[in-house]
Amino acid sequence: MRSSLKTGPCFHFNIRKVISTMGVFSKAEGNDELSLVACLPDSGSDSLEESINKIKEKCAWDLKITQTVHYLNEPASDELSRL
Hints:
This protein starts with 16 loop residues before the first strand and ends with a helix. The chain has a four-stranded mixed β-sheet, covered by helices on one side. A hairpin with a 3-residue loop joins strand 1 and strand 2. The model has no long low-confidence stretch (mean pLDDT 83). By secondary structure, it is of the alpha+beta class. It has helices spanning 48-58, 77-81, and strands spanning 17-19, 23-27, 34-39, 64-71. The protein has one domain (11-72).
């Protein structure tokens, strides 16, 4: 049985967005580098800027930040109950 998943050296070029426990990273049109576009609310951070700095510290690359980074909405209880 063959997989329809593309593999090989160019596979990463097809990825446009990554959602992680830190936030949402996306590639701008014509750019192959992921940038932070949104982050999860962090109870240990006082501000969005502090949350962004914590994410940058955890990244393994020189993370680019879009000008419109925002907090993601926390899931509603009914959304969580469907999981």
